[in-house]
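Database export, one record per block. Field names are fixed; values are copied verbatim from the stored entry.
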Amino acid sequence: MKIAMIGTGYVGLVSGVCFSDFGHDVVCVDKDASKIDALNSGKVPIYEPGLDELLQKNVAAGRLSFTLDLAEALDDADAVFIAVGTPTRRGDGHADLKYVFTAAEEVARLAKKFIVVVTKSTVPVGTNRQVKQVVKKANPSLDFEVASNPEFLREGAAIEDFMKPDRVVVGVQSDRAAEVMREIYRPLYLRDFPIMTTDLESAEMIKYAANAFLATKITFINEIAALCERVGADVKQVSQGMGLDNRIGNKFLHAGPGYGGSCFPKDTSALARIGQEHATPMHITETVIKVNESAKHRMITKIQDLCQGSVNGKTIAVLGATFKPNTDDMRDAPSLTIVPALIGGGARVRVCDPQGKHEGEALLPGVTWVEDAYKAAQGADLVVLLTEWNEFRALNLKKLANKMKTPRLADLRNVYTVKDAKKAGFEAYDSVGRPSFGVHEDD
Protein backbone atom coordinates (compact mmCIF):
# COMPACT_ATOMS: atom_id res chain seq x y z
CA MET A 1 0.00 0.00 0.00
CA LYS A 2 1.04 3.62 -0.35
CA ILE A 3 1.12 5.68 2.84
CA ALA A 4 1.64 9.40 3.34
CA MET A 5 2.98 10.40 6.77
CA ILE A 6 2.48 14.05 7.74
CA GLY A 7 5.09 15.05 10.30
CA THR A 8 8.66 13.82 10.73
CA GLY A 9 8.86 14.29 14.47
CA TYR A 10 9.36 11.38 16.80
CA VAL A 11 6.08 9.57 16.15
CA GLY A 12 5.83 10.33 12.44
CA LEU A 13 9.40 9.42 11.57
CA VAL A 14 9.51 6.19 13.56
CA SER A 15 6.10 5.12 12.24
CA GLY A 16 6.96 6.00 8.65
CA VAL A 17 10.25 4.13 8.73
CA CYS A 18 8.67 1.07 10.32
CA PHE A 19 5.74 1.01 7.89
CA SER A 20 8.23 1.06 5.03
CA ASP A 21 10.00 -1.88 6.63
CA PHE A 22 6.66 -3.71 6.52
CA GLY A 23 6.94 -3.39 2.75
CA HIS A 24 4.68 -0.38 2.19
CA ASP A 25 5.57 2.59 -0.02
CA VAL A 26 5.90 5.48 2.46
CA VAL A 27 6.36 9.18 1.76
CA CYS A 28 7.06 11.34 4.83
CA VAL A 29 6.11 15.01 4.59
CA ASP A 30 7.20 17.99 6.65
CA LYS A 31 7.12 21.78 6.26
CA ASP A 32 10.59 22.11 7.77
CA ALA A 33 12.96 22.20 4.79
CA SER A 34 16.03 21.64 6.95
CA LYS A 35 14.53 18.41 8.30
CA ILE A 36 13.66 17.10 4.86
CA ASP A 37 17.10 18.02 3.53
CA ALA A 38 18.73 16.20 6.44
CA LEU A 39 16.55 13.11 5.98
CA ASN A 40 17.24 13.03 2.24
CA SER A 41 20.93 13.08 3.15
CA GLY A 42 20.46 10.09 5.44
CA LYS A 43 20.69 12.12 8.65
CA VAL A 44 18.15 11.39 11.40
CA PRO A 45 17.16 14.53 13.36
CA ILE A 46 16.28 12.60 16.53
CA TYR A 47 18.15 10.03 18.58
CA GLU A 48 16.48 6.63 18.62
CA PRO A 49 18.60 3.46 18.72
CA GLY A 50 18.55 1.64 15.38
CA LEU A 51 16.44 4.21 13.54
CA ASP A 52 19.20 5.52 11.27
CA GLU A 53 20.10 2.03 10.00
CA LEU A 54 16.45 1.11 9.36
CA LEU A 55 15.86 4.40 7.56
CA GLN A 56 18.84 3.96 5.28
CA LYS A 57 17.86 0.36 4.52
CA ASN A 58 14.37 1.30 3.35
CA VAL A 59 15.47 4.39 1.43
CA ALA A 60 17.93 2.18 -0.45
CA ALA A 61 15.12 -0.31 -1.13
CA GLY A 62 13.03 2.46 -2.67
CA ARG A 63 10.20 2.15 -0.16
CA LEU A 64 10.83 5.32 1.83
CA SER A 65 11.20 8.94 0.74
CA PHE A 66 10.88 12.45 2.16
CA THR A 67 9.36 15.58 0.68
CA LEU A 68 8.02 19.05 1.37
CA ASP A 69 5.25 18.50 -1.19
CA LEU A 70 2.07 17.06 0.35
CA ALA A 71 0.40 16.71 -3.04
CA GLU A 72 3.26 14.47 -4.14
CA ALA A 73 2.93 12.36 -1.02
CA LEU A 74 -0.85 12.01 -1.45
CA ASP A 75 -0.63 10.97 -5.09
CA ASP A 76 -2.25 7.51 -5.25
CA ALA A 77 -1.99 7.10 -1.44
CA ASP A 78 -4.34 4.65 0.29
CA ALA A 79 -3.97 6.28 3.69
CA VAL A 80 -2.54 9.44 5.16
CA PHE A 81 -1.36 9.51 8.77
CA ILE A 82 -1.44 12.79 10.67
CA ALA A 83 1.48 12.70 13.13
CA VAL A 84 1.94 16.36 13.98
CA GLY A 85 2.49 17.92 17.39
CA THR A 86 -0.33 18.40 19.89
CA PRO A 87 1.42 20.50 22.55
CA THR A 88 -0.28 21.57 25.74
CA ARG A 89 -2.17 24.77 25.07
CA ARG A 90 -1.19 27.71 27.24
CA GLY A 91 -3.75 28.77 29.79
CA ASP A 92 -6.09 25.77 29.91
CA GLY A 93 -3.94 22.61 29.79
CA HIS A 94 -5.76 21.22 26.75
CA ALA A 95 -4.01 19.71 23.73
CA ASP A 96 -3.52 22.27 20.97
CA LEU A 97 -5.10 20.77 17.84
CA LYS A 98 -4.38 23.50 15.31
CA TYR A 99 -1.69 21.48 13.54
CA VAL A 100 -3.98 18.45 13.29
CA PHE A 101 -6.84 20.44 11.77
CA THR A 102 -4.54 22.31 9.41
CA ALA A 103 -3.12 19.02 8.14
CA ALA A 104 -6.63 17.59 7.70
CA GLU A 105 -7.73 20.61 5.70
CA GLU A 106 -4.68 20.41 3.44
CA VAL A 107 -5.31 16.71 2.82
CA ALA A 108 -8.91 17.48 1.87
CA ARG A 109 -7.86 20.02 -0.72
CA LEU A 110 -5.11 17.91 -2.28
CA ALA A 111 -6.41 14.32 -2.22
CA LYS A 112 -7.76 13.09 -5.57
CA LYS A 113 -9.23 9.67 -4.72
CA PHE A 114 -10.57 7.63 -1.80
CA ILE A 115 -8.27 7.86 1.19
CA VAL A 116 -8.33 6.98 4.88
CA VAL A 117 -7.31 9.91 7.07
CA VAL A 118 -5.65 8.42 10.14
CA THR A 119 -4.90 10.43 13.26
CA LYS A 120 -1.66 9.13 14.80
CA SER A 121 -1.15 12.13 17.05
CA THR A 122 -2.46 11.92 20.61
CA VAL A 123 -5.73 13.84 20.58
CA PRO A 124 -8.65 14.39 22.98
CA VAL A 125 -11.83 12.36 22.71
CA GLY A 126 -13.97 13.64 19.87
CA THR A 127 -11.13 14.96 17.74
CA ASN A 128 -11.46 12.42 14.94
CA ARG A 129 -15.10 13.37 14.47
CA GLN A 130 -13.93 16.98 14.23
CA VAL A 131 -11.29 15.95 11.69
CA LYS A 132 -14.07 14.39 9.61
CA GLN A 133 -16.01 17.64 9.67
CA VAL A 134 -12.92 19.68 8.73
CA VAL A 135 -12.27 17.45 5.72
CA LYS A 136 -15.93 17.51 4.63
CA LYS A 137 -16.08 21.28 4.87
CA ALA A 138 -12.86 21.77 2.90
CA ASN A 139 -13.81 19.30 0.15
CA PRO A 140 -17.44 18.07 0.23
CA SER A 141 -16.89 15.82 -2.80
CA LEU A 142 -13.91 13.88 -1.43
CA ASP A 143 -14.45 10.17 -0.82
CA PHE A 144 -12.75 9.43 2.49
CA GLU A 145 -12.95 7.74 5.90
CA VAL A 146 -11.31 8.64 9.20
CA ALA A 147 -9.51 6.38 11.66
CA SER A 148 -7.85 6.77 15.03
CA ASN A 149 -4.57 4.91 15.51
CA PRO A 150 -2.86 6.13 18.69
CA GLU A 151 0.83 5.36 19.17
CA PHE A 152 2.31 3.53 22.15
CA LEU A 153 6.02 4.00 21.48
CA ARG A 154 8.55 4.20 24.29
CA GLU A 155 11.44 6.48 23.48
CA GLY A 156 14.60 4.43 23.42
CA ALA A 157 12.69 1.27 22.45
CA ALA A 158 10.37 2.63 19.75
CA ILE A 159 11.32 0.29 16.91
CA GLU A 160 10.87 -2.79 19.07
CA ASP A 161 7.53 -1.42 20.28
CA PHE A 162 6.34 -0.83 16.72
CA MET A 163 7.49 -4.17 15.36
CA LYS A 164 6.45 -6.24 18.41
CA PRO A 165 3.63 -4.27 20.02
CA ASP A 166 1.66 -5.18 23.12
CA ARG A 167 -1.33 -4.16 21.01
CA VAL A 168 -2.36 -1.98 18.09
CA VAL A 169 -5.50 0.09 18.61
CA VAL A 170 -7.56 1.12 15.57
CA GLY A 171 -10.70 3.21 15.88
CA VAL A 172 -12.98 3.28 12.84
CA GLN A 173 -16.54 4.03 11.75
CA SER A 174 -16.81 1.66 8.80
CA ASP A 175 -15.73 -1.74 7.50
CA ARG A 176 -14.08 0.06 4.58
CA ALA A 177 -11.70 1.95 6.87
CA ALA A 178 -11.12 -1.16 8.97
CA GLU A 179 -10.08 -3.13 5.89
CA VAL A 180 -7.49 -0.52 4.87
CA MET A 181 -6.05 -0.45 8.39
CA ARG A 182 -6.00 -4.24 8.50
CA GLU A 183 -3.98 -4.31 5.28
CA ILE A 184 -1.55 -1.70 6.62
CA TYR A 185 -0.94 -3.78 9.74
CA ARG A 186 -1.07 -7.11 7.90
CA PRO A 187 2.49 -8.12 8.93
CA LEU A 188 1.43 -7.88 12.59
CA TYR A 189 -1.84 -9.76 11.99
CA LEU A 190 0.14 -12.60 10.41
CA ARG A 191 2.35 -12.81 13.50
CA ASP A 192 -0.66 -12.81 15.85
CA PHE A 193 0.04 -9.52 17.61
CA PRO A 194 -3.18 -8.15 19.17
CA ILE A 195 -4.95 -5.73 16.83
CA MET A 196 -7.90 -4.14 18.61
CA THR A 197 -10.61 -2.50 16.52
CA THR A 198 -12.87 -0.05 18.35
CA ASP A 199 -15.01 3.00 17.77
CA LEU A 200 -13.27 6.36 17.42
CA GLU A 201 -13.92 7.60 20.94
CA SER A 202 -12.70 4.42 22.62
CA ALA A 203 -9.45 4.47 20.64
CA GLU A 204 -8.83 8.07 21.66
CA MET A 205 -9.60 7.33 25.30
CA ILE A 206 -7.41 4.22 25.46
CA LYS A 207 -4.32 6.31 24.80
CA TYR A 208 -5.03 8.83 27.55
CA ALA A 209 -6.20 6.23 30.05
CA ALA A 210 -3.10 4.08 29.52
CA ASN A 211 -0.64 6.94 29.93
CA ALA A 212 -2.46 8.36 32.94
CA PHE A 213 -2.41 4.96 34.63
CA LEU A 214 1.32 4.51 34.03
CA ALA A 215 1.97 8.03 35.32
CA THR A 216 -0.08 7.11 38.39
CA LYS A 217 2.08 4.03 39.06
CA ILE A 218 5.23 6.13 38.88
CA THR A 219 3.80 8.80 41.15
CA PHE A 220 2.44 6.27 43.62
CA ILE A 221 5.81 4.60 44.13
CA ASN A 222 7.46 8.01 44.51
CA GLU A 223 5.05 8.82 47.34
CA ILE A 224 5.75 5.44 48.91
CA ALA A 225 9.48 6.19 48.59
CA ALA A 226 9.07 9.40 50.57
CA LEU A 227 7.30 7.46 53.31
CA CYS A 228 9.95 4.70 53.22
CA GLU A 229 12.60 7.30 54.04
CA ARG A 230 10.63 8.34 57.12
CA VAL A 231 9.96 4.84 58.46
CA GLY A 232 13.25 3.17 57.50
CA ALA A 233 11.94 0.90 54.73
CA ASP A 234 13.68 0.25 51.40
CA VAL A 235 11.50 1.21 48.42
CA LYS A 236 13.32 -1.18 46.08
CA GLN A 237 12.28 -4.10 48.27
CA VAL A 238 8.78 -2.68 48.58
CA SER A 239 8.54 -2.32 44.78
CA GLN A 240 9.73 -5.85 44.28
CA GLY A 241 7.22 -7.19 46.77
CA MET A 242 4.41 -5.25 45.08
CA GLY A 243 5.47 -6.18 41.57
CA LEU A 244 5.41 -9.91 42.26
CA ASP A 245 1.65 -9.58 42.56
CA ASN A 246 0.39 -10.37 39.05
CA ARG A 247 -2.44 -7.90 39.50
CA ILE A 248 0.10 -5.09 39.90
CA GLY A 249 3.20 -6.08 37.91
CA ASN A 250 6.73 -4.74 38.35
CA LYS A 251 6.86 -2.18 35.51
CA PHE A 252 6.78 1.55 36.30
CA LEU A 253 7.44 0.92 39.99
CA HIS A 254 10.90 2.46 40.07
CA ALA A 255 11.20 5.41 42.43
CA GLY A 256 12.99 8.49 41.14
CA PRO A 257 12.76 12.23 40.51
CA GLY A 258 9.34 12.13 38.80
CA TYR A 259 8.16 11.46 35.27
CA GLY A 260 8.85 13.70 32.27
CA GLY A 261 9.07 13.40 28.51
CA SER A 262 6.76 14.17 25.64
CA CYS A 263 3.77 12.06 26.69
CA PHE A 264 2.97 11.73 30.39
CA PRO A 265 2.99 15.44 31.34
CA LYS A 266 1.02 16.45 28.25
CA ASP A 267 -1.44 13.56 28.33
CA THR A 268 -2.25 13.74 32.05
CA SER A 269 -2.88 17.46 31.68
CA ALA A 270 -5.13 16.88 28.67
CA LEU A 271 -7.08 14.09 30.40
CA ALA A 272 -7.68 16.31 33.42
CA ARG A 273 -8.96 19.01 31.10
CA ILE A 274 -11.25 16.59 29.23
CA GLY A 275 -12.75 15.52 32.55
CA GLN A 276 -13.40 19.12 33.54
CA GLU A 277 -15.06 19.88 30.21
CA HIS A 278 -17.41 16.92 30.61
CA ALA A 279 -18.22 17.60 34.29
CA THR A 280 -16.41 14.41 35.34
CA PRO A 281 -13.29 15.56 37.19
CA MET A 282 -10.31 13.22 36.96
CA HIS A 283 -9.39 13.59 40.64
CA ILE A 284 -6.70 10.90 40.63
CA THR A 285 -5.02 12.29 37.50
CA GLU A 286 -5.15 15.84 38.85
CA THR A 287 -3.46 14.66 42.05
CA VAL A 288 -0.83 12.73 40.08
CA ILE A 289 0.12 15.95 38.26
CA LYS A 290 0.56 17.83 41.55
CA VAL A 291 2.46 15.04 43.31
CA ASN A 292 4.80 14.55 40.35
CA GLU A 293 5.77 18.20 40.46
CA SER A 294 6.39 18.00 44.20
CA ALA A 295 8.61 14.93 43.66
CA LYS A 296 11.00 17.02 41.57
CA HIS A 297 11.21 19.67 44.29
CA ARG A 298 11.84 16.97 46.90
CA MET A 299 14.96 16.05 44.91
CA ILE A 300 16.16 19.65 45.20
CA THR A 301 15.81 19.42 48.97
CA LYS A 302 17.84 16.20 48.98
CA ILE A 303 20.63 17.93 47.09
CA GLN A 304 20.56 20.90 49.44
CA ASP A 305 20.75 18.58 52.45
CA LEU A 306 23.83 16.89 50.98
CA CYS A 307 25.36 20.38 50.75
CA GLN A 308 24.56 21.20 54.40
CA GLY A 309 21.49 23.23 53.54
CA SER A 310 22.83 25.45 50.75
CA VAL A 311 24.27 24.92 47.27
CA ASN A 312 25.66 28.46 47.12
CA GLY A 313 29.27 28.36 45.94
CA LYS A 314 29.21 24.58 45.47
CA THR A 315 30.33 22.78 42.34
CA ILE A 316 27.78 20.12 41.41
CA ALA A 317 28.18 17.48 38.71
CA VAL A 318 24.89 16.30 37.20
CA LEU A 319 25.00 12.97 35.37
CA GLY A 320 22.12 12.83 32.91
CA ALA A 321 19.79 15.56 31.65
CA THR A 322 17.33 13.80 29.31
CA PHE A 323 14.08 12.59 30.85
CA LYS A 324 15.16 8.95 30.40
CA PRO A 325 18.12 7.07 28.89
CA ASN A 326 18.46 6.20 25.19
CA THR A 327 16.84 9.40 23.97
CA ASP A 328 17.81 13.00 23.34
CA ASP A 329 14.39 14.20 24.50
CA MET A 330 14.50 16.94 27.13
CA ARG A 331 10.79 17.72 27.21
CA ASP A 332 9.59 18.12 30.82
CA ALA A 333 12.70 16.32 32.07
CA PRO A 334 13.27 16.58 35.83
CA SER A 335 16.58 18.26 35.01
CA LEU A 336 14.65 21.30 33.73
CA THR A 337 13.31 21.84 37.25
CA ILE A 338 16.28 20.69 39.30
CA VAL A 339 19.26 22.23 37.46
CA PRO A 340 17.84 25.79 37.26
CA ALA A 341 17.07 25.61 40.98
CA LEU A 342 20.72 24.73 41.67
CA ILE A 343 21.99 27.56 39.49
CA GLY A 344 19.51 29.93 41.09
CA GLY A 345 20.86 28.86 44.47
CA GLY A 346 24.37 29.88 43.49
CA ALA A 347 25.82 26.53 42.43
CA ARG A 348 28.27 25.96 39.60
CA VAL A 349 26.76 23.11 37.60
CA ARG A 350 28.48 20.74 35.18
CA VAL A 351 26.28 18.40 33.15
CA CYS A 352 27.27 15.17 31.43
CA ASP A 353 24.74 13.43 29.15
CA PRO A 354 25.45 11.21 26.12
CA GLN A 355 22.70 12.79 23.99
CA GLY A 356 21.28 15.75 25.91
CA LYS A 357 23.68 18.54 24.99
CA HIS A 358 22.09 19.43 21.63
CA GLU A 359 18.75 20.39 23.18
CA GLY A 360 20.11 21.07 26.64
CA GLU A 361 22.40 23.95 25.71
CA ALA A 362 19.38 26.13 24.98
CA LEU A 363 17.19 24.77 27.77
CA LEU A 364 19.77 24.88 30.55
CA PRO A 365 21.70 28.14 30.20
CA GLY A 366 24.48 28.69 32.68
CA VAL A 367 25.72 25.10 32.92
CA THR A 368 29.02 23.70 31.69
CA TRP A 369 28.70 20.62 29.47
CA VAL A 370 31.38 17.96 29.75
CA GLU A 371 31.82 14.69 27.85
CA ASP A 372 32.90 12.45 30.70
CA ALA A 373 31.47 11.70 34.16
CA TYR A 374 34.88 11.76 35.81
CA LYS A 375 35.72 15.15 34.31
CA ALA A 376 32.40 16.43 35.59
CA ALA A 377 33.28 15.19 39.08
CA GLN A 378 36.76 16.78 39.16
CA GLY A 379 36.86 19.02 42.23
CA ALA A 380 33.09 18.79 42.70
CA ASP A 381 31.31 19.07 46.03
CA LEU A 382 28.51 16.72 44.95
CA VAL A 383 27.60 14.35 42.13
CA VAL A 384 23.91 13.99 41.22
CA LEU A 385 22.93 10.92 39.21
CA LEU A 386 19.77 12.12 37.45
CA THR A 387 19.35 9.89 34.37
CA GLU A 388 20.29 6.21 34.44
CA TRP A 389 22.24 5.93 31.18
CA ASN A 390 24.12 2.63 30.96
CA GLU A 391 27.46 4.39 31.22
CA PHE A 392 26.39 5.74 34.62
CA ARG A 393 25.25 2.32 35.89
CA ALA A 394 28.77 0.90 36.18
CA LEU A 395 30.87 3.85 37.29
CA ASN A 396 34.11 3.30 39.12
CA LEU A 397 32.81 4.91 42.29
CA LYS A 398 36.21 4.92 43.98
CA LYS A 399 37.71 6.80 41.04
CA LEU A 400 34.75 9.18 41.07
CA ALA A 401 35.09 9.86 44.80
CA ASN A 402 38.83 10.44 44.53
CA LYS A 403 38.33 13.18 41.96
CA MET A 404 35.88 15.13 44.11
CA LYS A 405 36.54 17.90 46.60
CA THR A 406 33.96 16.42 48.95
CA PRO A 407 32.84 12.92 47.88
CA ARG A 408 29.06 13.04 48.16
CA LEU A 409 26.52 11.35 45.92
CA ALA A 410 22.83 12.00 45.29
CA ASP A 411 21.71 8.82 43.53
CA LEU A 412 18.26 9.87 42.31
CA ARG A 413 17.76 6.70 40.24
CA ASN A 414 18.73 4.17 42.92
CA VAL A 415 21.52 2.70 40.81
CA TYR A 416 23.91 2.17 43.72
CA THR A 417 23.62 1.38 47.44
CA VAL A 418 24.91 2.66 50.76
CA LYS A 419 27.35 -0.26 50.79
CA ASP A 420 28.67 0.69 47.33
CA ALA A 421 29.12 4.31 48.35
CA LYS A 422 30.86 3.58 51.65
CA LYS A 423 33.20 1.06 50.03
CA ALA A 424 34.19 3.66 47.41
CA GLY A 425 35.04 6.24 50.06
CA PHE A 426 32.05 8.58 49.82
CA GLU A 427 31.38 10.57 52.98
CA ALA A 428 27.68 11.02 52.24
CA TYR A 429 25.12 9.25 50.06
CA ASP A 430 21.40 9.64 49.48
CA SER A 431 18.95 7.94 47.13
CA VAL A 432 15.16 7.78 46.77
CA GLY A 433 13.23 5.80 49.34
CA ARG A 434 16.24 3.88 50.67
CA PRO A 435 18.79 4.20 53.47
CA SER A 436 21.34 7.00 53.32
CA PHE A 437 24.33 8.09 55.37
CA GLY A 438 26.14 11.32 56.18
CA VAL A 439 23.32 13.44 54.78
CA HIS A 440 22.50 15.53 57.83
CA GLU A 441 25.97 15.48 59.37
CA ASP A 442 28.22 18.51 59.54
CA ASP A 443 31.56 18.58 57.74
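Remark 1: Residues 200-231 form the longest helix (32 residues).
Remark 2: The chain has a mean pLDDT of 95.
End of record.
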